[in-house]
Structure to design on (314 residues):
């Protein structure tokens, strides 16, 4: 699911991506099939998605039967075959809240009962969120690309400590590809709002895309060399962690998850130190710290679960 505004027209799409095709890779455009498109906001999805509930239920219960003489398909099968269907939901947290009970009782996490204002401490109980399409809770995941983008937006906002640093970073960004006319827009000039925004790390408003991230991390030491040491360490530590988000199964087989756990613990100490006076950290950062290793253990290759091609098509 993806929502975006193009020339003042807000549209939302829901697509189907087949994860285990041999003919096309998961992140190829030929592998993405549009099943729903409407003009409106993400919260309007409830008006349209109910029609899919029975179809999804039947697919999960009955699978798909391929009849050799009736269905044209290059599946290299020699007899009628029934395929079991396992359906996943992949989106950002914003979209997920409109098709599930994600936000009930002040929660935000897909795996535990952590409250938004208490994310430095964390949740105490595992939770099973329910989806309107009856998709099993273990198959409800966050788009890895969106998680990556949102985490670094959050970290970058933490680096904008004063106007001098802000201008230094902007001047460096303007010299790099993909950042032409990029700005750090402040959300409010009201003193009370500014104080609250700073506590929530929402005092600046901007959006990064995948291409921005590639440029930022390729030039991170140059861009952030005027930052205090802890902020520099935070950026570089996340730079190491995010590589794991894009490892395929072949690379993962050569790695030890203990190495990732060590990186995440070091990252956690840094961000907890920098955010200790607020009581909270970003939603996606919390999910990364608390749950990304169990998710990798369960599903392995995170790269499959990305809406990168969906965003590109949209």
């Amino acid at each position: 699911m993806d929502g975006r505004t193009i020339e003042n027209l807000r549209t939302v799409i829901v697509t189907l991506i087949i994860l285990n095709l041999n003919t096309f890779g998961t992140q190829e455009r030929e592998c993405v099939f549009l099943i729903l498109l409407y003009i409106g906001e993400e919260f309007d999805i409830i008006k349209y998605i109910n029609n899919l509930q029975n179809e999804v239920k039947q697919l999960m219960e009955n699978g798909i039967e391929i009849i050799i003489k009736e269905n044209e398909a290059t599946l290299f099968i020699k007899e009628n075959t029934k395929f079991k269907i396992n359906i996943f939901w992949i989106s950002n947290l914003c979209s997920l809240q409109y098709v599930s009970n994600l936000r009930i009782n002040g929660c935000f996490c897909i795996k535990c009962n952590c409250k938004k204002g208490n994310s430095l401490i964390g949740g105490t109980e595992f939770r099973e969120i329910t989806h309107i399409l009856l998709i099993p809770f273990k198959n409800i995941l966050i788009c890895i690309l969106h998680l990556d983008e949102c985490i670094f937006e959050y970290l970058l906002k933490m680096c904008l400590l004063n106007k001098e640093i802000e201008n230094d970073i902007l001047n460096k960004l303007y010299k790099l590809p993909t950042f032409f006319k990029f700005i750090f827009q402040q959300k409010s000039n009201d003193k009370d709002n500014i104080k609250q925004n700073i506590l929530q790390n929402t005092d600046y408003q901007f959006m990064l895309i995948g291409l921005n991230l590639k440029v930022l991390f390729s030039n991170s030491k140059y861009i952030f060399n005027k930052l205090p040491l802890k902020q520099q360490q935070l950026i570089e530590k996340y730079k190491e962690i995010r590589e794991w988000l894009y490892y395929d199964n072949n690379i993962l087989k050569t790695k030890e998850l203990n190495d990732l756990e060590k990186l995440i613990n070091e990252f956690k100490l840094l961000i907890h130190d920098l955010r200790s006076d607020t009581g909270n950290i970003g939603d996606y950062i919390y999910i990364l710290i608390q749950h990304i290793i169990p998710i990798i253990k369960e599903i392995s290759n995170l790269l499959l679960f990305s809406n990168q091609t969906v965003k590109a098509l949209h």
Summary: The chain has 13 helices and nine strands. The two ends are 10 Å apart (CA to CA). The longest helix spans residues 257-274. The longest strand covers residues 9-17.
